[in-house]
Amino acid sequence: MKEILNEMTIKMRSLSVNEGFARACVASFCVQAEPSLDEVTDIKTAVSEAVTNCVVHAYPDSEGEITINVKLYDDSVFISVSDTGVGIKDISRAIEPFYTTKPNDERSGMGFTVMESFMDEMNVIKNKNGGITVELVKFFEKVSCKAVGETC
Amino acid sequence: MTIKNRVYNNTLYVLLSGELDEHTAKNTRITLDEIFSSNGFMQIIIDLSELAFMDSTGIGVLIGRYKKMKDKNIPIYICNPSMHAEKIFKMTGLYEIMPKII
């Protein structure tokens, strides 16, 4: 089993204003593992998509709680974004590109597709007590010191 | 999100600055619709050089504006997207309806 270098958990209300905070917070935390700028941007986007799902779909008519857990490894990061909202009836349908339950709200239906494309792994799990958890994994492609002729 | 615009040679230039996500989407839609509802231009160029962040919510906003302008036969073009925005545009096929210009 891989050693966890660091771990954090944040809880927040399902307010859209928290999207920027969530992605910046997770990205800042990941910087310890020295990811590339592209990798940080990918992580920010995926977290933003997952939190938006909670704000828009998990709690459509009310506010609820969003929990983000981040486990940092030397070569990767594991991120889970959980809610206790209304859940998703058909997960396999929901993650299809361009599928949206709110076409009149100008939704692209690409949230899960973006998460899947920008991260290396994505799992969407129904929680026992309601809501869903989105699990995301990103592996870091670190440039070796020898390759760039520097001393580590 | 800050939006600046000007009309030059029958073209409406729009500069988006800041972050486009669920939180800023509503005001972005309203502001763009106000700007687009004016007259005096035959095409629109949206400059994303100062857009620091965008997720798929931004795609929904742009497609929504495209649909409204399509009814008026006014094409919309994208310029100066970040590498990151470009990745989302290519993934979603946005360039097929809002081509990128240099």
Any overview of this molecule?
- The complex is a heterodimer of chains A (152) and B (102).
- With 152 residues, chain A is an alpha+beta fold.
- Chain A is built from 5 helices and 5 strands, in the order E-H-H-E-E-H-H-E-E-H.
- Chain A has helices at 18-30, 37-58, 91-94, 111-118, 145-148; strands spanning 6-13, 65-72, 76-83, 121-126, 132-139.
- Chain A has a 5-stranded antiparallel sheet, with helices on one face.
- In chain A, helix 1 runs antiparallel to helix 2 (37-58) and helix 2 runs antiparallel to helix 4.
- The radius of gyration of chain A is 16 Å and the shape is globular.
- Chain B has 102 residues and is an alpha/beta fold.
- In chain B, strands 1-2-3-4 form a 4-stranded mixed sheet.
- In chain B, helix 2 links the parallel strand 3 and strand 4 (76-79).
- The longest helix of chain B is centred in the first third of the chain and has 15 residues, at 22-36.
- Chain B is globular.
- The interface between A and B is medium-sized, with 24 and 20 residues.
What fold name goes in the CATH topology slot of chain A? Heat Shock Protein 90
The low-confidence runs of chain A, each spanning 5 or more residues with pLDDT under 50, are: none
Strand arrangement, major sheet of chain B: 1-2-3-4
- One letter per element, helices H and strands E, the order of chain B comes to EEHEHEH
CATH superfamily of chain B, called what? STAS domain
Oligomeric form:
heterodimer
Outline:
The complex is a heterodimer of chains A (152) and B (102). With 152 residues, chain A is of the alpha+beta class. Chain A has helices spanning 18-30, 37-58, 91-94, 111-118, 145-148; strands at residues 6-13, 65-72, 76-83, 121-126, 132-139.
List its traits:
heterodimer; A: Heat Shock Protein 90; five-stranded antiparallel β-sheet; 5 helices; B: about 100 residues; alpha/beta; Transcription Regulator spoIIAA; four-stranded mixed β-sheet; about 30% strand; globular
